[in-house]
Write a structure and sequence with these properties.
about 350 residues; 2 domains; Rossmann fold; 8-stranded antiparallel barrel; alpha+beta; 4 helices; rod-shaped; Porin; about 50% strand
């Protein structure tokens, strides 16, 4: 039994993939074909419409328009179009404005607009006229669908809320001035204490669709490190200068990515020996901070930024008194940052 079911399902699945899944009723494009009582739409016209509108719309037959007044028939056609959900309602009837004995037809097209379009056809009913009518209906359908798509795009743009991305409605320069201000904390490393401090950076932001990139120059001032041992005591103050690059992918409310921040740790150290002798030195330690970051886009021009990374000292620095090492800053430490990032304009 199972092989038989499998043999039936596989060809059906292949057919659906090749031919395309049928449109749902709610998304179906329909053209409603009407006629004036007592006439009915000709078979040739219906077949010409179905051939011309193949894969573009479904042709459905509607009721006849019975009122002798043209304005009333047009009003009835509008009502039937709205009731059926069709994109167009069309019908053909003789042109009564012609002199007696003349053969001419009028194609009426009821679309989304308030006016009904009338197209005069100076030809009698027949296969050639049916094909001409089908071509005119296809042209009107394409125009109606394009107008609906344009109206939907304009409506969505007007009603869409702020995305938190300046590029969403930016019409000027794709870059902005950036100021980043916040706090940082560094974990202890080897014999170095944990540190906390403030940071300030300025730079530029660039948007490439959903990709946000920033290039900043910054500085940081952190708490002092100190140690007291029988061999002496040391006190270290530190200022950092950095050049950082960031790249994030932004959605409506958040952005996620990472940063790379080469920096220089400027260490000013003073020491005192057990005998009371003092001395000082100044050292520059190159470092590299890498890690992920997450942002909450509070506003187009204001982001709350959080990051956690590892800072690697590109040169290991130790400080000693009388050849005894008292302070070792190590080669790596964990660093977290929390800041507000503002941009202009």
């Amino acid at each position: 039994m199972l092989p038989l079911v499998w043999r039936a399902v596989v060809p059906l699945f292949v057919c659906l993939v090749v031919l395309g899944w049928p449109a749902s009723a709610s998304g179906e494009v329909t053209v409603l074909v009407l006629a004036r009582t007592p006439a009915r739409p000709s078979t040739g016209l219906v077949e010409s419409l179905r051939i011309q509108l193949a894969k573009a719309a479904t042709v459905r037959l509607g009721p006849s328009l019975g009122d002798p007044r043209l304005a009333a028939r047009q009003q009835q056609a509008r009502h039937l179009k709205q009731q059926s959900g069709a994109v167009l309602a069309v019908w053909v009837e003789p042109d009564r404005t012609e002199r007696a004995g003349a053969t001419a037809l009028v194609l009426y097209l009821a679309g989304d607009g308030p006016e009904i379009d009338g197209r005069r056809l100076a030809a009698p009913a027949g296969p050639a006229t049916d094909r001409a009518v089908a071509l005119l209906v296809r042209e009107a359908l394409d125009n109606a669908l394009a107008a609906r798509a344009a109206a939907g795009a304009d409506s969505g743009k007007a009603k869409s809320p702020k995305t938190g991305r300046p590029d969403a409605d930016r019409t000027g320069s794709p870059w902005a001035l950036v100021v980043d201000s916040g706090v940082m904390a560094a974990a202890p490393s080897v014999t170095a204490d944990a540190q906390a401090g403030g940071l300030l950076s300025v730079g530029a932001r660039f948007w490439h669709g959903p990709l946000l990139t920033e290039l900043l120059v910054g500085t940081s001032v952190v708490s002092t490190m100190g140690t007291e041992q029988p061999a002496g005591s040391l006190k270290t103050s530190e200022i950092g200068v950095s050049l950082g690059g960031r790249a994030l992918f932004a959605t409506k409310t958040v952005a996620i990515g990472g940063s790379v921040e080469p920096s220089l740790r400027l260490l000013d150290v003073t020491g005192e020996s057990p005998l009371g002798a003092t001395g000082s030195c100044f050292r520059v330690v190159p470092a590299l901070l890498v890690g992920p970051e997450l942002r909450w886009l509070l506003h187009d021009n204001l982001h709350l930024r959080g990051s956690a990374g590892v800072q690697f000292a590109l040169r290991r620095q130790r400080f000693a008194i009388n050849d005894q090492i008292l302070l070792d800053i190590g080669v790596a430490r964990a660093v977290t940052q929390l800041s507000l990032v503002g941009s202009l304009p």
